[in-house]
Amino acid sequence: MFGTYKPLWGKKPRFKSSYDAVIIGGGLHGLATAYFLARDFGMTDVAVIEKRFIGFGGAGRNTAIVRANQRTQENVPFYRKALDLWPVLTRELDFNLMFYNCGNLNLVHSEAAINAARMNIATAQFCGVESHLIDARQCKEMMPALNISEDITYPIFGAMYHPPGGIVRHDAVVWALAKGAAARGVHIHQQTAATGIGVENGKIISVDTEHGKINTPRVLLSAGGYTAALAYRLLRIQLPISVLTIQAMVTQPLKPLLNHVISSGAYHVYANQTLKGEIATGAHMDPWPNYTTQTTAHYIKHQAEALAELLPCLRGVKFMRHWAGLADMTPDMAPIMDGNDHVDGFYLDCGWGYFGFKSCTAVGKYMARFMASEKCPPILKPFNLRRFEQHRLMGETAAVVNYSANN
Amino acid sequence: MALTLTCPICGERNGYEFRYGGEDKGPRPRAEDPAPGHWCEYVHMSPCVAGIRKEWWYHKDGCGVWFTTERDTTTSLEVKQPEKTR
Ligand SMILES: Cc1cc2nc3c(=O)[nH]c(=O)nc-3n(C[C@H](O)[C@H](O)[C@H](O)COP(=O)(O)OP(=O)(O)OC[C@H]3O[C@@H](n4cnc5c(N)ncnc54)[C@H](O)[C@@H]3O)c2cc1C
Ligand SMILES: [Zn+2]
After folding, report:
1. CA dist., res. A303 & res. A372, Å (int)
2. Which single residue of A99, A247, B19, B71 could bond A86 by disulfide (Cβ 3.0 to 4.6 Å)?
3. What is the pTM of this model?
4. Which is nearest to A86 in space by CA: A60, A62, A66, A58?
5. Which residue of A has its CA nearest to B52?
6. Measured from the CB, is residue A368 less than 6 Å from ligand 1?
């Protein structure tokens, strides 16, 4: 019954002393970039180096929500590309990624929030992404479990309904990308931390690791929540990032009852039902930077209260597991993707906060193009690091964030 | 263990009573300093230290004092008594 297992991504590769490209971080972004470097540009002499094991970070901890209903004209098209890639990758990688495009309902609880939703919807429609405003009655028709009564803390006024979004199984994405990259010749080195980056005359020349030096002309630093600390430690580059702990939990498995992803800013909660039947829900962040992955009783209580109001049928249902990961937040809630600035051959991908799962496919595709051509693809240009010094922050957040130093 | 902070006036209190006010980055650039880089560094940038750093906190659900203290970001625990308020 228990056979011998081989990892999907083949035998442990030989650790070579040079590669055409080194990717630091075996999360979704690193693996996807490696995959697309091999697939689209024939760059197969690539190493992904991972301190622990692939999927250890946000890749294996997120709540798997995908959508393309962001706020700005720069972000929506990018997330749309990412969303469009799930069915493509499922076919191409020959792996069931369990993409369930059940649609997302962003609940709104005030007139002001309705107006904010209207703006998001107009942006979505302008970018060719489906998104509509619906009222509370329509919410109830779509999701009978929802409590639309007026005697709750934040009564529901309506929702922004975004049909193309949904959920994808995150572990499957890690395994499939690793399998696809390895099959094309990419070396995945687990238990191999990057400890230094060598620069000579403004150019990348090497990466130091626990297992020795690798000579390489290009490096992508894509280590999820650890990226900002590494950028400073290895290259003395400071980033506009605050790393916060983000928590999530699942209930015991239930019969199907949540047929869409729901989220509510006022209750600070989102929930979806996994294909196994659990209600997966998040996402509390203690608003001060820290690198722990500790969970808190404070948050279990918050989550139980919010869910019991929005979905009264969940009263008395048990939480089964509760975990946390890191979210690297920028002041404008938009990521940083950059390269060949400051140091030639150095590429950077970070600031993905709690939206780096839904974006990973497009990040891989376009960061690979950036690294192979050495030219920034137009779709990535707005996400450069210099926007902060030019005071051209993106408007992904309508309100000032409350975790950074500047407010 | 959850965060506990020592308010210079009220003493040790639950971390959720406080509001984080950012890393203590020292004095702000002079108003006449035109270099955008300096301002950007002061306003946005951080070395994101995994370890001990000095921070501003505000006792929002308490006496309302602002103070600095040191905290280890790898454990999210305060490491020593804050200095006297300035
Ligand atoms: C609880 C939670 C819920 C979330 N929910 C969602 C969601 O619903 N939708 C969504 O879009 N996003 C969500 N996210 C965000 C998303 O998971 C992350 O943005 C994304 O996974 C980060 O990219 P990654 O997978 O490449 O990074 P990670 O998986 O974090 O990979 C980084 C890797 O770098 C490795 N590393 C660290 N230091 C070194 C070193 N020195 N050398 C080599 N390797 C190193 C780490 O071990 C890690 O494996 C959530 C995150 C959390 C924690
Ligand atoms: Zn006090």
Report:
1. 45
2. A99
3. 0.96
4. A66
5. A290
6. no
**C-alpha span between B18 and A300 (Å, rounded):** 20
Q: Which domain holds residue A106?
A: 100-166+242-331+399-404
Which residue on chain A is closest to B34 by alpha carbon? Answer: A389
Check whether A407 has a pLDDT greater than 60. no
Of B22, B39, B48, Cβ closest to residue A232 = B48
Domain boundaries, chain B: 4-27+34-80
For residue A406, pLDDT beyond 60? no
Q: Are residues A105 and A153 in the same domain?
A: yes
Query: Burial code of A176-212, b = ≥16 C-beta within 10 A, e = fewer?
Result: bbbbbbbebebbbbbebbbeebbbeeeebebbebeee
Question: Dihedrals φ, ψ of A26, to 5°?
Answer: -100, 50
**What CATH number does residue A51 fall under?**
3.50.50.60
**Which residue of chain B comes nearest to A326, CA vs CA?**
B74
B21 and A405 within 8 Å at the Cβ level: the answer is yes
Is A86 a domain residue? Answer: no
**Which of A232, A247, A290, A342 would you mutate first to test chain B, the one with the most B CBs within 10 A?**
A290
**Cis peptide bond prior to A59, omega within 30° of 0:** no
- Hey, are the CB atoms on B46 and A388 less than 8 Å from each other? no
Tell me the chain A residues in contact with residue B51 when contact means C-beta distances shorter than 8 Å.
Answer: none
A307 and A319 part of one domain = yes
Encode pLDDT of A187-198 as tens digits.
999 999 999 999
Residue A202 to residue A198: CA distance in whole angstroms? 10
B3 touches A: beta carbon within 8 Å: yes
* Mean pLDDT across chain A: 95
Note whether A106 and A117 are same-domain residues.
Answer: yes
A248 lines ligand 1 (CB under 6 A): yes
Residue B74 to residue A292, Cβ atoms within 8 A: yes
Do A198 and A235 belong to one domain? Answer: yes
Position B83 scores a pLDDT of 54
- What residue's CA is closest to ligand 1, atom 53? A325
Q: Which two tokens stand for residue A212?
A: 């020795």
The CATH classification number of B4-27+34-80 equals 3.30.2270.10
Q: What share of chain B is helix, strand, coil (3-state, %, to 5)?
A: 15, 35, 50
Neighbours of A151 (CB within 10 A): 7
The residues that bridge with A214 in the sheet, in sequence order, are A207
Kindly state whether A193 is in contact with chain B, defined as any CB-CB distance less than 8 angstroms: no
Q: Is residue A123 part of a domain?
A: yes
Judged by CB atoms closer than 8 Å, whether chains meet at B76 and A292 is answered as yes
Q: Is residue A120 part of a domain?
A: yes
> Which residue type, as a one-letter code, is found at position A401?
V
Q: Would residue A14 count as lying in a domain? A: no
ipTM of the complex: 0.91
pLDDT of residue A403: 64
